[in-house]
Specification:
The chain is of the alpha+beta class. The chain is 28% helix and 37% strand. It is built from 4 helices and 7 strands. A hairpin with a 4-residue loop joins β6 and β7. The chain is globular, with a radius of gyration of 15 Å. The protein binds coenzyme A. The site of coenzyme A has 19 residues, from β4, α3 and α4.
Length: 159
């Protein structure tokens, strides 16, 4: 599962100064994007916030909460022009490995059932559906359910 980055790729902690670049990607990627205040709050409360650079430019980011043996992937996003290059997979592999190293035994996330790209990535990494949250997300017409997915990161018996 360990991420093997390409020579032109780098994953590093997000800094406050990165937020305008992150917001530019966020706003083009989601119909209901996070605000810059949400990203600032994530940094302030100590969530694991990463940016992925490609050729020195921010190509994606991920926000993860790690606590009590669990990691919750709150946001992962790749620049619309940098998709289908394997960046999303390598960023996911990196944050799962990082969370496991911090003691997380399980990873959780929510995803829209309509997000075929993201669900395809998560299934391929070993995530499985454990619940359905009705009407969880805002949608253009009404609300959309969320799939709750989980992935075992480590067996406590072998740690
Ligand atoms: C989801 C996302 C992070 C994937 O990033 P990416 O860099 O394009 O993904 P990768 O190139 O690493 O592809 C990983 C896997 O995702 C799936 N995938 C990627 N693009 C896909 C597409 N257009 N259609 C179907 N599956 C796709 C495939 O399973 C792919 O594996 P494969 O290349 O072995 O077939 C990216 O599409 C994105 O940022 N989307 C907008 C934000 C978002 O929806 N985030 C998730 C919120 S829960």
């Amino acid at each position: 599962m360990a991420a093997v980055l390409k020579p032109d790729e780098l994953i590093r902690p997000m800094q406050k100064a990165d937020i305008p670049w992150v917001m530019a990607i966020e706003q083009k990627s989601y119909e209901f994007p996070w605000t810059d205040g949400i990203f600032s709050d994530c940094l302030a409360v100590g969530y694991r916030c990463f940016v992925m650079e490609r050729n020195g430019d921010i190509a994606g980011y991920a926000i993860v909460s790690v606590a009590a043996g669990e990691c919750h992937i709150l946001n992962i996003c790749i620049h619309e022009r940098q998709r289908r290059l394997g960046l999303g997979r390598r960023l996911m592999e990196y944050i799962l490995e990082h969370s496991r190293a911090e003691g997380a035994l399980m990873a959780y996330l929510e995803v829209r059932p309509s997000n075929i790209t993201a669900t395809g990535l998560y299934w391929s990494l070993g995530f499985e559906q454990i619940a359905l949250r009705k009407d969880y997300y805002p949608a253009r017409r009404g609300r959309e359910d969320a799939l709750v997915l989980a992935c075992v990161l480590a067996n406590p018996a072998v740690i």
